[in-house]
Amino acid sequence: MARFANGKAPFLRSSDARNSGTGIIMRDFMIGLLPVILFAWYKNGIKVYIEGNISFLEMLYPLLFILLGGLISTLFEGLFFYITDKEVRNLKALGKKLAVSYAAIPGLILAMIAPLYTPIWVLMFGAFMGTIVGKMLFGGFGNNIFNPALLGYVAIGFTMLGVINNAGGAFNASEVLVDAYAGATPLGTLAGAKVINYDTLVAPYGSLWNFLLGTIPGALAETGSLAIIIAYIWLAVRKVIKWFTPLIYVGTVFILSWFIGIAAGETGMWFPLYSILSGGLLFGAVFMATEPVTTPKNPLGKIVFALFLGVLTVLFRFIGNLPEGVGTAIIVMNIFTMPIDKMTAVIRAQGIKKSTIVSIVGLALFLIILMVYAIVKGGNVYSALITFVPFIQGVL
Amino acid sequence: MKSFFNKHGLITSLVLIIALIFVGGGFYSRYMTNQIAIHEEENKGGELNALFLSLFTGATKVEEFETTPVTVSYFKPLSSTDEYTPELTGSYKVYNGTTEVGVIYVVTTFGKNANLTVAYGINLSDNTLSGVKVLSNEETSSYFSALGTTFYSQFANKTLDDIGFSVDAVAGSTMSSKGFETGMFYAREQYAKDFGFEIPTIVMTLNSLTYNLDPLSFVDKPYVADVTYGDENTNVVVYLDSAFNYAGTVSGDEPASDVQSGIKSYASKSTEVSSIAAFVSYDSVTRTLVISGKGYTTKKLIQGTFILNTTLDGVESFSYTETESYDNEYNDKYNHSLGEIPYVENNLTNQYINGETEIDGVAGASVTSNAIKNIINLLDLFINDQNGGE
């Protein structure tokens, strides 16, 4: 049943209030990013400088790199506005346009999920792909289908990975000195070793505490799990994001990883914890899976979206060729945002009825099949489980 | 110009800033990437520095110095034909504050398989070795790991006046041990050239080096050396152990330690005896002689047991422990035509028993054949000795 506001006119939407609206949301979002940016700078710059492994100029690089990401995408967007809109050919008008377009965010986030030694021209290419192709060509802020930062990330990931690795990759100057890392991030080790074993996956990086604190190798800001959790709490409390979306996403990965661990004969809780604290899962769950434009609007849609994200992430991680699965999973699910939104809106509006039951059963079935597939296929890669189920092996 | 900027100033500025970021960022990124290699080098240098400092107590600084490497050739370990020249790959002075306390020579010598790079630290105050550190090796890891702390500790405080460097080789890693020793000889040559150190020499003639055929002592003292030394032509006959260390006197006075060291140096370079085979035991009641030899399977020795006939001038029967492998394709060439396992051992020993003066080895099994020939040589010497040479 539709709900109507009652009371006396004039009616004001809460989003129009001074302390609400998109501007406030974006301000809070930026505040949420702050601990993660600072941690990225601390881990890859300040800490390494204190350890005596880099110069002062190198110490500044991680921070400048992230800020440059924001500046570059703002400049690209400004350029786009200037070229496409005759009304925006003076600084004042351009400033106004950029302010409501939140132009800095795609580049900022892209820089945060890029490896430390990504050359700045590669960052520019990624920011161009994210801002211009991923955002502006779709009509700008509020109209884009894909998360712009992720589109930029996928673009440089597919085309410039060799360039990034040749330039130095993700390891900072202190991390390259640690022989135990053997030049691999935790998820890189999992993809290479193909074993679920604490001594192989966790011990070289210290303990799970290191994973929580973020003192493990990885892209600039993705490893700072604790900082991301703080950001999550802040954003959830400020109602910038729905609290349950990251929780369901991360929870799905946790449970599926746990089952895959069990299938491989590893029943300890360390493996699912390792799975959620490795790579960009927490970062993606908090800052990307909750993005208001490219993810479903209604709560049921968000739940379905997050569940699928979890399953796809596990599938990509355990079965795909790339160690990370978060970016690809979110980009893939961005495509389905609109159908999910429509389908779940109908279910929410009409409840469980004859007309909606097909959609509900269909979605649930598809999700369950994907989950079972992920576990069985994950087990196939990492254990001998599948040999006991030849039928499944034949089918899958 | 002013009108241009009024009209196009914004776009020009935007493009210029982007271009500036592109160029400046490019330089910054390049700087960051270049720094990686520099840090790696610094770190390597730092590690090496720490390693070198650890060779000297209280040392505070290591500085590289230029020197002209000496050229000296040595036989490869356990070879009397293959020569090689060690290479000086680094020379460093070590300081305690401003006082020069030591010198380090990094020498690439030859181990079992290939190069072995070792740093030799020498105390300037008393011409002793402060220690050695392995910088790199290309040996089989299991083989090389046999060289433990006991082996390396032998080098600490060893005087360069020791003419033959009495370093005990480690069983199972003899050739690597010898490689260390050769590197040490080379480092001493370099040190003598750089710091005017006089390498000790002793006038000595090794008259003979033979196997000890006395069953009561041949296990611990397998060799007997007859030596004349010094200005007064002092003659002494001494026992040597398996590493050619002095092990007792047969005749003459016990020589001084520098002479013992000299004897070792001469004996270890001599080709008159081979360490491939050695006596293990002899039971005079049962006339059972046991001799071991180093064959292809280096981890286990070939052991031959020979029962001599009653007149002690021949072999009544013999047997071998089967330590060599005869079931792989390497042995396919000969294993069906030579009789019972172990084919090579039996074949060569039967040649000897049948009175062949020249024992023929088996093609494709040259290492095993060589070991058996050495065993048979010892057997023959023992029989001749027991039978009074008749």
Quick rundown:
Chain A has 396 residues and is mainly α. Chain A has helices at 21-50, 56-84, 91-101, 104-113, 120-133, 148-159, 161-167, 186-193, 198-201, 208-213, 225-237, 244-263, 270-277, 281-288, 299-319, 326-335, 337-350, 354-382, 390-395.
Which tags fit this structure?
heterodimer, A: 396 residues, mainly alpha, 19 helices, B: 390 residues, alpha+beta, Sufe protein. Chain: A, 5-stranded antiparallel beta sheet, 4-stranded antiparallel beta sheet, 15 strands, 33% helix, elongated
Question: Could you characterize the architecture of this molecule?
Answer:
The complex is a heterodimer of chains A (396) and B (390). Chain A is mostly helical. Chain A has 19 helices and no strands. In chain A, 66% of the residues lie in helices and 0% in strands. In chain A, helix 12 packs across helix 13 (270-277) and helix 15 packs parallel to helix 18 (354-382). Chain A is globular. Residues 382-392 of chain A have low confidence and may be disordered. Chain B is elongated. Chain B folds into three domains: 61-195, no CATH class; 204-269, no CATH class; 277-386, Sufe protein. Chain: A (Alpha-Beta Complex), CATH 3.90.1010. The mean pLDDT of chain B is 82. The longest helix of chain B is centred in the N-terminal third of the chain and has 52 residues, at 2-53. Chain B is 33% helix and 26% strand. The A-B interface holds A 53-55, 57-58, 61, 64, 68, 71-72, 75-76, 78-79, 82-83, 89-91, 94, 117-121, 123-124, 167-168, 173, 176-177 and B 10-11, 14-15, 17-18, 21-22, 25-26, 28-33, 35-36, 39-40, 43.
